Amino acid sequence: MRNHDNPARVLIIDDDRAILRMYSDIMSAEGFITETDSSAIDAIERLQKGEKFDLVITDIMMARMDGWELLRNIRQEMKLGELELPVIIVSAFVSDTLEAKAFSCGANGSYVKGREPLTKLLKMVRIQTGRERSIFDDTTGAD
Q1: What is the pTM of this model?
Q2: For a tag site, which of 58, 91, 102, 135 has the least CB within 10 Å?
């Protein structure tokens, strides 16, 4: 059961406003507090100012600064480890090496938008924030 008294704060970064809205709406319906940024630079400024988040979800392909550079900044410059601030990398491109690269760069997970079911992303978010079952989980056919 989710802890509604202390909902996790999730920062979502993507330069596609439709994706930001969709992820934010889904995460909010799950009981998470969501904040969004359309650039990695704005997200870094928030983190450097001391805003606290329980999870970051970031797209890779963005103008000015990509998600890899954001992840590097979080891990190396801010020295926030995988347990202090989990990061899920999101890509629109299928790659055999995405997951391996994400983990080697310090991400806690990777997700291919438009190719993998949103339930996969939600499961990763719940795992990384210590939450339980989702209202979106399909319980039909479960034994």
Answers
A1: 0.87
A2: 135
